[in-house]
Design brief:
It is a single chain. With 298 residues, the protein is of the alpha/beta class. The chain is 42% helix and 23% strand. Helix 5 links the parallel strand 3 and strand 4. The longest helix is centred in the N-terminal third of the chain and has 24 residues. The chain is elongated and about 80 Å long. It holds the Pfam family LysR_substrate. GO terms for molecular function: DNA binding; DNA-binding transcription factor activity. InterPro entries: HTH-type_LysR_regulators, LysR_HTH_N, LysR_subst-bd, WH-like_DNA-bd_sf, WH_DNA-bd_sf. It comes from Agathobacter rectalis.
Length: 298
């Protein structure tokens, strides 16, 4: 058969994402062009490859058989491209990553500085995502990889590796200085105004699970959209709050806020990298991944 091999490349991405629009985005193409190419491929091989539905597409048995061969071929091609990339790929280009606010503040910034000093010609695109948004952006091929804070859940072909850990602590403004010499229980927190992130965040879910494990409800009196908003509210005496310890240490040292001991032990949280094992990335993105992932081993 004399079939345009570009059709097989397009087929690979449509089958991978089960969606014409997502495939078009990954290919830098338009959805009508992708649809037209797949219609042509089906006609030329005389097989129905997809079942169309409102949510996207599903592979037919014939489509599954073709994908098994095409995906193997694409893996070899992508591996060859990586093999041929050299240091010249680090003199220019761009890297797109998603980062949760906590991950950016307490882990990623120093690594980005190291990378930028080594490769000043590489443009960095940093997207401020919640953990679920960042994972979804990786899944849809919109970014090269993500660095997020747990809790987080991923499914194949996404992979998640742990980069580091951090501890949440309870803090209050200077009007709560007396509490700095005491130890409170979770139950006693209901006697004080509480500040926390909104219910749509993974941080809220983390503390909600923590409180529920002790038979209590996590119900902040003041909810914020970002972690950065919590510290000014604590300094303004709006209540007590849980914060990542690295983000609170400077204010504690300057006696702007106080750390308050808690009877119950708060579980550790992790900073993780999430990437798609099948998604091809540039030499620059591979190098940044290496800088970020290798630094936690030092």
């Amino acid at each position: 058969m004399d079939i345009n091999f570009e059709y097989y490349k397009i087929f690979y991405y449509v089958a991978k994402y089960c969606n014409f629009t997502k495939a078009a985005r990954a290919l830098g193409n338009s959805q009508p062009n992708v649809t037209r190419a797949m219609n042509n491929l089906e006609q030329q091989i005389n097989s129905i490859l997809f079942i169309r539905n409102n949510r996207g597409v599903q592979l037919t048995p014939e489509g599954e058989r073709l994908y098994a061969h095409v995906s193997a071929a694409m893996s070899q091609i992508l591996a060859a491209e990586e093999d041929l990339s050299d240091s010249t790929g680090l003199s220019h280009g761009s890297v797109s990553i998603g980062a949760s606010e906590t991950a950016l503040n307490i882990y990623l910034l120093d690594r980005l500085k190291t990378f930028h000093m080594a490769y000043p010609g590489i443009r960095l695109r940093i997207y401020n995502h919640s953990t679920p948004q960042a994972i979804n952006a990786v899944k849809n091929g919109m970014i090269d990889f993500a660095v997020v804070s747990t809790p987080a859940e991923v499914e194949a072909p996404l992979k998640m590796i742990k980069l580091g850990s951090f501890q949440e602590i309870l803090v209050g403004g200077t009007t709560f200085t007396a509490l700095g010499s005491q130890t409170l229980s979770l139950n006693e927190l209901h006697n004080y105004p509480l500040i926390g992130l909104g219910r749509e965040t993974m941080t809220f879910q983390f503390f909600n699970r923590f409180f529920m494990s002790h038979g209590l409800e996590f119900a902040p009196d003041t909810e914020t959209a970002t972690t950065d908003q919590i510290l000014p509210l604590v300094k303004s005496e709006l209540g007590l709050a849980f914060m990542p310890k690295p983000m609170a240490e400077a204010a504690i040292a300057n006696r702007e806020i106080v750390e308050i001991a808690l009877e119950e032990e708060i579980p550790q949280r992790n900073i993780c990298m999430v990437y798609d094992i099948h998604h091809p990335i540039s030499a620059a993105a591979r190098e940044l991944k290496k800088v970020i992932s290798d630094s936690h081993k030092v």
